[in-house]
Amino acid sequence: GDAKGLERSLRKALVKLPTQHPAPASIGMDNTALKVLQRAEDLQGKSEDTHVAVDHLLLALLDDSNVKEAL
After folding, report:
1. Cα angle at 43 between 40 and 48, to 5 degrees?
2. Rounded CA separation 60/47 (Å)
3. How many CA atoms lie within 13 A of 4 on its CB side?
4. Which residues contact 6 (CB under 8 A, 6 or more apart)?
5. Distance between CA 38 and CA 54 in Å, rounded?
6. Angle formed by the axes of helices 31-46 and 54-63, to 10°?
7. Residue 5's closest CA among 26, 64, 13?
8. Is the pTM of this model over 0.85?
9. Residue 59 above 90 pLDDT?
10. Would the N or C end of the chain have less CB density within 10 A of its end CB?
11. Angle at the Cα of 8 (from 7 to 13), degrees rounded to 5?
């Protein structure tokens, strides 16, 4: 996996996502994003850190099935 290959995979995945025109006035996070954040918070607690760090977020993202599929 090179960086360009990852970028191509992610762009292909993004094209498949639904779109809405015009865009809504306000948006919130979907359940998948909330689960990733919850997983990051769990990792923060297990490592006894005071804040959610980038490494917690990255590890949480790597646990997500959609991200695994893109990689």
Report:
1. 125
2. 13
3. 0
4. 70, 71
5. 14
6. 120
7. 13
8. no
9. yes
10. N
11. 95
Which own/partner contact pairs does 56-65 have at CB distance under 8 Å and 24+ positions apart?
A: 60/36, 61/36, 63/36, 63/39, 64/32, 64/35, 64/36
> From residue 52, how far is each of 1, 25, 47, 61, 65 by CA, in Å?
27, 29, 10, 13, 21
In this structure, are residues 41 and 60 in contact, taking their beta carbons and an 8 Å threshold?
A: no
CA-CA-CA-CA torsion sign (55, 59, 64, 67) = positive
Q: How confident is the model at residue 58 (pLDDT cuts 50, 70, 90)?
A: very high
For tokens 């762009």, name the residue: 11
